[in-house]
Amino acid sequence: MRYPASLLPFKDTPIPIWGNAVISTFDLAAIGAALVFFVVLVALLQRTALGVRMRAAAENPRLAAASGINIHRVIALSWGLACFGATLGALFYSTRVNLEPDSWLVGLRAFAPALIGGMTSPLGVLPGALIVALVEVLAAQYLDPIMVNSAAFIVLLAALWIRPWGLFGTREEVVRV
Description:
By secondary structure, the protein is mainly alpha-helical. It has 8 helices and 2 strands.
C-alpha cells in the first residue's frame, strides 16, 4: 500500500523550532496552505462584491433574492469553497495518518472552532481553533489520550453555555413564537 506522501517530490524532514519541539515539512506546508486559504477566503468575503452577495444570501435569502442576487448560484459557490477547504484539509491530513472508517471524527471536531469563534465571524475561527487545539493537547498530555476526541466538544459546551453566539459572533435576539 502506498501513501500519498510517498508520491511527493520532497521528504518529510523534521525542523527544530525551540528546545525539543520540532515541526515537520508536511506540517509546515499544511499550516502555510491553511493560512493562505483562510486569508484569501476572508478577503473574498470582506472585500469583493461576491462576498457581499454571499453574506447577504446567508443573512436573509429572501431579501437577497428580491434584490436580484441569484442565491442558488451563491449558495452553490459557498458549498464549493467549503468543499475545496475540506479537500485541502483532507489531503494534508492523509499525509500524516492512514484514512480509516473513523476518520470522520476529525471533520466533526472541526465544527467546534467555528462555533466557539462565532458563526457570524470568519476571523473568530482562528482563536476558536487555537483554544480547541490547546485543550486537546492538554487533555492528551495530562489526562488520557482518548480524551482528545471529546475535548473539543467539552470546550464547545462550555463556550456555548457562557456565550451562545460565540466569542466573536454577534448577539442574536431569540424571538419566541
